[in-house]
Amino acid sequence: MALPLVEASKLSNTVVSQGIVETFVKDDPILARLNFETIVGNSYQYNRELSMAAAQFYGVNEEWVSSYPTADPKTAVPKIVGSPVELDDFLKKTRSNITDLKQELIDAAIKATKFTFMDSVFYGNATTNPKQFDGLHVLVSDTTYNTLIVDSGDTQTVPLQMAGHLDKAIDMIKGFKPSLIVSSRQMRRNVNKYLRGVGAGATATKDEFGNLLEHYGTIPWAVSDYITDTELTSSGAYSAKTGGLTTSIFILSFDPKAFYGMQVEPMNFVPWTIMTGTNKEWANIRWYPTILVKSLVSCAKIVGIDADGTVAA
Q1: pLDDT exceeds 70 at position 209
Q2: Tens-digit pLDDT profile for residues 179-200
Q3: Per-residue pLDDT for 15 more than 60?
Q4: Domain-by-domain residue ranges, the chain?
Q5: 109: pLDDT confidence band, cut at 50, 70 and 90?
Q6: What is the architecture, at CATH level 2, of domain 3-47+73-133+259-293?
Q7: DSSP string, 117-178
Q8: Average of pLDDT values for 164-184?
Q9: Is the separation of the CB atoms in 166 and 172 below 8 Å?
Q10: CATH architecture of 146-257+297-306
């Protein structure tokens, strides 16, 4: 059963680990919604549907023809992510009256783990870096089903079009309800400027977590500091996280048959222990996660948008 990270952490026997997960998820619109399934093993095999089975009308006594859906076998492999911390006993004894050094170090480790995980959610590539899992730029990259290329010539000057690009990308999602549009902060500012210019303005309501989120139509729109405005394209397709002047917009569906996560066990905290032969204590935040996009038409993205371009209708 797939559960949000905070709910999954409640299955842990460690109260400290539960608190760490709550801190990890806090204020992130993707982590708050992304469901995780806990698996036993070092990989998970699944089939991504490519085409449906066929059906047709038949005449009386006509021979029926069997038809089957086609699928592309995929394998999701959990990866190791975490952040160890060390503290010399002298510092603990002489500085703890100023600040809780252990808590400061743990908070920094949570922040570092969150950054590394979320960076891989968008930009991970297990082919170029086998330590990472494949991110959304790899998992959502089919120009027939889920990826809209707006700048095939790599000019880096094509602005977002609300109807021609955004609405078209949303329409690529079939059989699923789009849960969230995610962009960089600058891209969201550009969209807001356009909406105010046409007298529309963005609507904002409280989401299921009590946070205010702006909406495009009925779909919440969130910003992510992990999406860059410096993406590089090659023949219009995403090529690199930095080196260019473009950005991407993702339309995500959070569903066990769409975009969701897997983990070997809930994120946990390895308690402070004395490091043999030193005057230090050591602790660790560790986690073994990966992500999946199980259906080609469950999520979509627009790639190659001029990051500071003027949004048009």
Answers
A1: no
A2: 999 999 999 999 999 998 988 7
A3: no
A4: 3-47+73-133+259-293, 146-257+297-306
A5: very high
A6: 2-Layer Sandwich (3.30)
A7: HHHHHHH--TTT-TTSPP-HHHHS--TTTTEEES-TT--S----BIIIIIIHHHHT--SS--
A8: 96
A9: no
A10: 2-Layer Sandwich (3.30)
Q: Token digits for 12? A: 């842990």
Q: What is the pTM of this model?
A: 0.88
Structure-token pair, residue 281: 């204590």
Structural tokens at position 83: 């952040």
Token pair for 59:
């005449």
Residue with tokens 């085409």: 51
